Amino acid sequence: MINKFLLSLILIVLSISLLQQIAPFVEEKPLYGSFTKASKPRFKIDSLLTGSYQRNYSKWIHENIGFRSTLIRLHHQIGYWLYSKSYANAVIVGKNNYLLDKKYIYAHTGQDFIGEDSIKYMLQKTKQLQDSLSKYNIKLFIVLAPGKASFYNEYIPDFYLKNIGKTNYQYFSSYLKEFNINHIDFKKWFFALKKTTSYPLFPKNGIHWSTYGALLAADSIIRYTEQLHKLSLPHISFDNIRISDSLNEVDQDVGLGMNLLYGPKNIPMAYPTLSYNKNNEDRKLHVLSVADSYNWTLPISGMSEKVFKQFDFLYYNKQLYPNSCEPSKDITTVNKLKLLSSVNTIMIMMTDANLSEYSWNFIEDAYSALFKNKTLSGTAIPLDVAIKMYDIKNDPPWIKLIKEKAIAKNISIDSMLYLDAKYIIEQSYRTNNGTQ
Question: Is the pLDDT of residue 40 over 80?
Fold first, then answer.
């Protein structure tokens, strides 16, 4: 009798699930995150014989079964309630149920330490690039953003604290000072504010600094940029601050990513209302931010529309978002010489968890694009000449004229291009210096 009852129950559950798949009659809450469901495979004899049709069909059923989202959330909820377990990638439930990412814990304990010599070498290259850019009035600075595990290290489970060693942050912060590299150390500053701040600088269930913390950082970035260029920029003002336990996505992104039915419980967070205290006439700088996802938490629309002439975002040195909000471009399709020579300021911002991948090779890429241009004979091409050569190449009538001159002089087009660009730059300097 019991067996029949169980069998009937299973058949009823399967039938309801099948009915939901074929003709959804309950609107489910979708899973949080980026997912692409498998599409139903087309039947082909070849794919049937190789077995790919069966595999793809099985995957399609698995990812499209009725009530899948609810069943996943139920499974995650049971694990969270019974074992304090998180099924979100790399996320653990720390003390007092604070959610932490393992990568940030490893940064705090030194498990990702890349060695002093490596750090020293990378910052020597950074100093070289900073000084070279400075000759063209392009300012470069580094931003050390705090990681949540370091900030809330009291909530890290004891298991992860058995072996604490040297950390990347210790050496980066030390050599940035020793090499006189422009930088802001938000990790140090946030930790100093931790006991006195009126509002949380990190949320309980988010991975980034809080919305309030990000706004403090943005204001400091603007003021630091202002000091570097010795000019006046619009500043952020907090008109009022609203405290709410109804959080925006930034302040609970990890909690949402756990895909639970209930919880985890949030702590109230602060949400300032912003204004900018100067008009658009002060927007003079084109900024390129090379950063991780912390950049998304900054008030990028305000910074790109109210503070800077343009605020581009190069995400992990891979995807370029012009003015931060426009559709992205793969950086490999972008002319780096033109991009880098068009900006006034370059900010490289990363958390302690990303210091092991310092700048994501941006420093090397930028230096090569700007200062390693050479003629066919191996002569180094100055940056201003290289930029002029780029401009000529992208001006059809002008490059046509260069080709004609190259034929007349019986030299290569590249040589003619270099000679004309060099001549124009030299004439420009003579004119500007009154020596002509």
Answer: yes
